[in-house]
């Protein structure tokens, strides 16, 4: 999948395509239904499939002091879109100046002149342009006048009738329900990052950990998780069973939120490498222990529970 940072620099093979527009944070099952429509329409028109998204996420621009909230930072989002078979991704830089662009200018300058779109696919509640004045009705009217088609995808719901949404997935993660989040995502929620050196206390306790910060990610409920840890091996990723603590480590007076991952039966050096961590099951909330001995004993019990749970799961 080719990635472009400006709509006006698209090569000929990326122009005239079928374009989905949105933030697509999480690329959940609702998003995937929309993207399926994109690929189907693109195939019928013998045109490329594209996603037009915005980086950074508008909420990061308008509410920079709020806690991190993203389910899929840029790198993860791009990888998921590629796995879904999208041909091109256009990541337009979003800032306050861009937010002042009128809906009509967005259509004329970016979609038509910049990308030469042949067809646009949006979700039923998609709004765009200054003060969110653009909507499906405006796109339909301008498309008829400027020569592109429009498909509006209606809400997609799960078996319980709930509409798939990024906000609902965030709620599940905050509640310590990774399996509930996975049911909405269509895959396990994953945190990825470069392994950093910590205090190396776990090594002295018999539980060496690979430590990741949550830079840009939403913070799920703090606690102990059964996880699969993906170790990059060239172009492939090998997932191994593991147990992880996500939190601030109150027993040792920790301050920063970290994801500390103990890989079972692993003996390699992970410092500086990328690790992909899938949250599978929530074992218990984080707690403060009276001593390191008490904490270590609980860690042993957590590891046993994690092994048992993961033995029944697929990475």
How would you portray this structure in words?
- Helix 5 packs across helix 6 and helix 7 packs antiparallel against helix 8.
- The model has no long low-confidence stretch (mean pLDDT 92).
- By secondary structure, this protein is an alpha/beta fold.
- Strand 2, helix 1 and strand 3 form a beta-alpha-beta unit.
- The strands form 2 sheets. Strands 1-4-3-2-5-6 form a 6-stranded parallel β-sheet, with helices on both faces.
- The protein has 10 helices and 12 strands.
- The protein has 2 domains: 152 residues, 3-Layer(aba) Sandwich (Rossmann fold), CATH 3.40.50; 124 residues, Elongation Factor Tu (Ef-tu), domain 3 (Beta Barrel), CATH 2.40.30.
Question: How far is the N terminus from the C terminus?
Answer: 24 Å
Instruction: Give the uncertain stretches in residue-range form.
Output: none
Specify the structural class: alpha/beta
Rg for CA atoms: 22 Å
**What percent of residues adopt helix (DSSP H or I)?**
25-40%
Tell me the number of strands.
12
């Amino acid at each position: 999948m080719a990635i472009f940072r400006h709509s006006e620099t698209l090569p000929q093979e990326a122009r005239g395509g079928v374009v989905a527009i949105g933030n697509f944070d999480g690329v959940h099952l609702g998003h995937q239904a929309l993207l399926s429509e994109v690929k189907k329409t693109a195939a019928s028109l013998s045109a490329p499939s594209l996603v037009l998204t915005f980086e950074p996420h508008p909420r990061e621009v308008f509410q920079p002091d709020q806690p991190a909230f993203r389910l899929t930072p840029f790198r993860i989002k791009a990888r998921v879109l590629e796995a879904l078979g999208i041909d091109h991704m256009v990541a337009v830089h979003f800032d306050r100046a861009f937010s002042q662009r009128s809906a009509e200018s967005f259509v004329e300058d970016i979609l038509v002149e910049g990308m030469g779109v042949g067809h646009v696919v949006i979700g039923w509640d998609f709004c765009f342009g200054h003060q969110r004045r653009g909507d499906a009705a405006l796109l339909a009217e301008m498309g008829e006048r400027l020569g592109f088609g429009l498909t509006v995808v209606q809400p997609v719901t799960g078996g319980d009738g709930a509409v798939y949404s990024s906000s609902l997935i965030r709620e599940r993660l905050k509640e310590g329900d990774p399996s509930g989040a996975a049911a909405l995502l269509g895959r396990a929620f994953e945190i990825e990052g470069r392994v950093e050196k910590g205090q190396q206390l776990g090594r002295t306790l018999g539980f060496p950990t690979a430590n990741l910060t949550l830079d840009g990610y939403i913070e799920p409920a703090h606690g102990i998780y059964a996880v699969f840890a993906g170790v990059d091996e060239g172009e492939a990723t090998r997932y191994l069973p593991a147990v992880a603590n996500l939190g601030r480590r109150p027993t040792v007076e920790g301050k920063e939120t970290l994801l500390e991952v103990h890989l079972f039966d692993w003996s390699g050096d992970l410092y500086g490498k990328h690790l992909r961590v899938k949250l599978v099951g929530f074992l218990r909330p984080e707690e403060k222990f009276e001593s390191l001995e008490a904490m270590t004993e609980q860690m042993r019990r957590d590891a046993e529970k994690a092994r048992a749970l993961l033995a029944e799961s697929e990475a």
